[in-house]
Amino acid sequence: MMKAHLHIGTPNQQHFVESFRERNGSDATFEMRTSSSYEIEKRVFDLVVGTGILVLLIPIFPIIVLMIKLDSAGPVFYKQHRVGKGGRLFKFFKFRSMYKEADAVRERIKDLNEQDGPVFKIKADPRITAVGGFLRRSSLDEIPQIFNVIKGDMSIVGPRPPLPSEVEGYQAWHRRRLEVKPGITCLWQISGRSHISFNEWMRLDMEYLKNRSFKTDFLIFLKTLPAVIARKGAY
Fold first, then answer.
1. Banded model confidence at residue 25, pLDDT cuts 50, 70, 90
2. Contact between 181 and 99 (Cβ < 8 Å)
3. Using one digit for the tens of pLDDT, what is the confidence trace for 181-212?
4. Is the N end or the C end of the chain the one with fewer CB atoms within 10 Å?
5. What is the predicted pLDDT for the residue at 233?
6. Confidence at residue 193, expressed as pLDDT on a 0 to 100 scale
7. pTM check: above 0.70
8. What is the mean pLDDT of residues 142-154?
């Protein structure tokens, strides 16, 4: 049985991780095989590429910060608890792309959801600011996740990290994606993102788990920039 680790101690978070422990473990339909050398290579790749991206993009940080501050009230960074490897909760970072009361508004507009499954997505989301729309379409809002990668909570390549509420709605086979570190980019990211169904998204993650290798990670990484430029499914 996979063990979940918790570094944040609220009762709700503890309940979530315990629930994950109880439900996960008997729903395996394939064996995920990776070598110890792959895990080392992956971590080195994460650190080298993550640091390199940070060095390249840090010059535009002040511009993004200024744009966000001039556009709407609220913090520059958006912090949220997401589910990582083994059901462990971690603090996830993005540049803020929504109005500061966005989380409260979500409950009021939940009936407008355009994505199937437990994920909430709206193409013309009223919570997104003008600058936030640009940041999302260009994927620049994701840059702060490099800090998650360097810290070790995330990887450059891996399934996207879900919200605890999304995992609560998972079927048993969906939870297999929590056996590895979440990533900034993945097969879903380069295959149309929000234009594909939830179950197809999950199947792409299963495909990644079955075929994880340094070569696979590198190919996904190389295909990410063209996908970002194409902006297919980015909103």
1. very low
2. no
3. 999 999 999 998 778 899 999 999 999 999 99
4. N
5. 59
6. 79
7. yes
8. 97
Q: What does each C-alpha distance from 35 to 32, 39, 86, 214 come to in angstroms?
A: 10, 7, 18, 10
User: HEC string of the chain?
Assistant: CCCCCCCCCCHHHHHHHHHHHHHCCCCCCCCCCCCHHHHHHHHHHHHHHHHHHHHHHHHHHHHHHHHHHHHCCCCCEEEEEEECHHHCEEEEEEECCECCCHHHHHHHCHHHCCCCCCCCCCCCCCCECHHHHHHHHCCHHHCCHHHHHHHCCCEEECCCCCCHHHHHCCCHHHHHHHHCCCEEECCCCCCCHHHCCHHHHHHHHHHHHHCCCHHHHHHHHHHHHHHHHHCCCCC
- The whole-angstrom separation of Cα 143 and Cα 152 is 15
- Beta strands 89-95; 155-157: pairing state: unpaired
Q: Tens digits of per-residue pLDDT, 81-116?
A: 999 999 999 999 999 999 988 888 888 898 888 888
What does each C-alpha distance from 95 to 89, 129, 134, 196 come to in angstroms? 20, 12, 12, 25
The residue type of 140 is: L
Tell which residue, 1, 2, 18, 33, has the closest CA to residue 164. Answer: 18
Degrees to nearest 5, angle at CA 165 with 161 and 169: 95
| Nearest to 176, CA basis, from 39, 43, 4, 30 | 30
Quote the Cα angle for 117-171-194, to 5°: 30
